[in-house]
């Protein structure tokens, strides 16, 4: 669908004689894609390989077994007894080697009553989430300068999608636990939790930088950083 639309678009550009533009568009289409497509049936990740490539090297396909494509445990809730009251059990290529080159992963999300999966982004993955149990208030924020918040309350069976790279969150708006399952468009979507990146980086971001960025006094920055020291 995505590819054929792009192809039609490129043909239109070429019809106008914009050959160079068409080449540029091709390059753009390529770089907009998610993980690269497989060029073989499978490429079970060799997690112990010392070779560094984009993705992971394949183990010998003749040695692949059903267990390489298998993970068990998403029936078990993650422990939400932490300061935000949520837990994400991510099944990415590191936990399911058969996912290597497939461009997808899956996660179970557990929320204590009023628990929060705090504002975060996945640099490499668009996400689609469905609620299994409970009520979630979910949202994402579009890029600057609009910073538009797309907010929605979800109930069991409801599905919501978060665009790649955009900051998003889920909040359990009810007084009972909530559970969701999410799919992500990368074998290794990555995770940046906004507060952790700003206030718990290693080494720390200098206070001067955060004071100016957030337009607050040093005391507030120090208090925000101090929460991570306890
Ligand atoms: C999430 O749950 C797992 C399994 O109970 C636990 O090992 C892990 O420490 C929890 N993570 C957080 C951040 O609480």
TrEMBL record:
The keyword Metal-binding applies. InterPro entries: Cupin_1, Germin, Germin_Mn-BS, RmlC-like_jellyroll, RmlC_Cupin_sf. This is Germin-like protein. It holds the Pfam family Cupin_1. Keywords: Apoplast, Disulfide bond, Manganese, Metal-binding, Secreted, Signal. The lineage of its organism: Eukaryota, Viridiplantae, Streptophyta, Embryophyta, Tracheophyta. SMART domains: Cupin_1. It is found in: Secreted, Extracellular space, Apoplast. One of its GO terms (molecular function) is manganese ion binding. Mn(2+) binds at residues 120, 122, 127, 168. Gene3D superfamilies: Jelly Rolls.
């Amino acid at each position: 669908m995505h590819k054929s639309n792009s192809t039609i678009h490129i043909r239109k550009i070429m019809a106008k004689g914009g050959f160079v533009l068409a080449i540029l568009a091709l390059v753009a289409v390529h770089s907009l894609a998610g993980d690269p497509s497989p060029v073989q049936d499978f490429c079970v990740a060799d997690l112990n390989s010392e070779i560094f490539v984009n993705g992971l090297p394949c183990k010998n396909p003749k040695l692949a077994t059903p267990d390489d494509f298998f993970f068990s445990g998403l029936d078990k809730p993650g422990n939400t007894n932490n300061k935000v009251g949520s837990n994400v059990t991510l099944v990415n290529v590191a936990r399911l080697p058969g996912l290597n080159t497939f461009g997808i992963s899956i996660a179970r999300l557990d929320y204590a009553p009023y628990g929060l999966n705090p504002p975060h982004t996945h640099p490499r993955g668009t996400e689609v989430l469905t609620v299994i149990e409970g009520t979630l208030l979910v949202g994402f924020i579009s890029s600057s300068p609009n910073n538009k918040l797309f907010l929605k309350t979800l109930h069991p069976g409801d599905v919501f999608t978060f665009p790649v790279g955009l900051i998003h969150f889920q909040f359990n708006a009810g007084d009972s636990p909530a559970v969701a399952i999410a799919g992500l468009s990368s074998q290794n979507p990555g995770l940046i939790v906004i507060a952790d990146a700003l206030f718990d980086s290693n080494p720390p971001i200098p206070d001067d930088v955060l004071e100016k960025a957030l337009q607050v006094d040093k005391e507030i920055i120090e208090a925000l950083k101090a929460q991570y020291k306890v």
